[in-house]
Amino acid sequence: MSGATPAAIAAYDQAVFAFQNWRRGADDHVAAALREAPDFVMAHALQAYMLVCTRDPEQVRSARPVVERLSNLPSSSRERLHFSAIAAAVDDDYESAKGQLGRILDLDPRDALALHVAHAFDHLTGDIECLNERVAAVLPAWSSDLAGYSAVLAMHAFGLEEAGDFQRAERTALAALALDRANARAHHVMAHVFEMTDRPEAGVHWLTEHRDRWQTDTVVATHCWWHLALFHLSLGDADRAFALYDRRIRVSRSPEIADLIDASALLWRIQLHGSEPGHRWIELASAWAPHIDDSFCSFNDVHAMLAFVGGRHWGLARRLEDALAGMQLSSTRHGQTTRQLGLPACRALLAFGQGNNDLAVELLERLPSRAYRLGGSHAQRDVLYLTLQTAFRVAASLRPRPVLPRIEAQSSHIH
Hints:
Layout: H1 6-20, H2 26-36, H3 41-52, H4 57-61, H5 64-71, H6 77-90, H7 94-107, H8 112-124, H9 128-138, H10 149-162, H11 166-179, H12 184-196, H13 200-209, H14 211-215, H15 221-234, H16 238-249, H17 257-272, H18 280-288, H19 298-310, H20 314-327, H21 333-353, H22 357-365, H23 378-398
């Protein structure tokens, strides 16, 4: 806690709690800590982490001045490891960032900030193994008498769910909620468990019954509304899904990348179910258009393409395809994921939207088994599988049936 005062530490603790528990207000608390102690090293680090733990390249880049300020402050060896992790993330080297955070957790498995950020980076990079194993490794150092344990259990539950251990994930999420009924992360895990175990009725019941706990003053409210809309869609109620989109998901026309992702994924699924989103695509495609040249995240690119193809904005779709075709030659992290996943997935979506179902099936079936490296969750990446199913079904229905030779009955064969 280099450069801190007791009052600054109190504000910092509130900021970490909010950040770790997906509560709003973390930025206000960290600003209060820095007003109280302008040279408080970890308050600067937290401020930077809140910027780099996003899918928005502008926010990530805006952390660079914070890194420069950190480099000029006296600090401990562990604080310098935090600096290195932040600097690596700003330079788009998330593997190095995760390595530095892992070193911190080896030194102190109770470093709640390092654990939270490492978990976020594992999710961002689609590192399912680390998403599950990293939290499991530090769990023995935690207990219910430590502040933040409920959040750690919720992280563990999410890792278990993404690893396919749905029963343990549900039990662990419920254990987290037994400690903190307002744990939005744990409610989010429950939504994923219901989604992956095909229990939409239970999902509707859970999210409706606990709505005040996950929607009030949290950063995950829009995403949980998205889950609720998916459950209604699974039950055949597209009208209810549209209503949630209009009233809860795009009501504020949020420019946040995470909100745009949810919006694209929901409208595409509704369209696959046979209902037409209409004018909603126009607004959403316009919101995605400034991100065509982001060159940052293939998961973002796929969801931008959903909006462009869904709304039949072929010019924007071609612009994105051209940008990705150039990016695939890059040696960057985004260049690699574009080559392996982003470009073929986006071309498949474009082919599907233009009625070339055979090509869409071919491209989607050729995606590597490690397609989860796109990032995001299984529930989110399912949009590609659902598209493959639809394309295959439509292609099969359009193929001419083979003409079988007519068999004439011979009188000598009839007895």
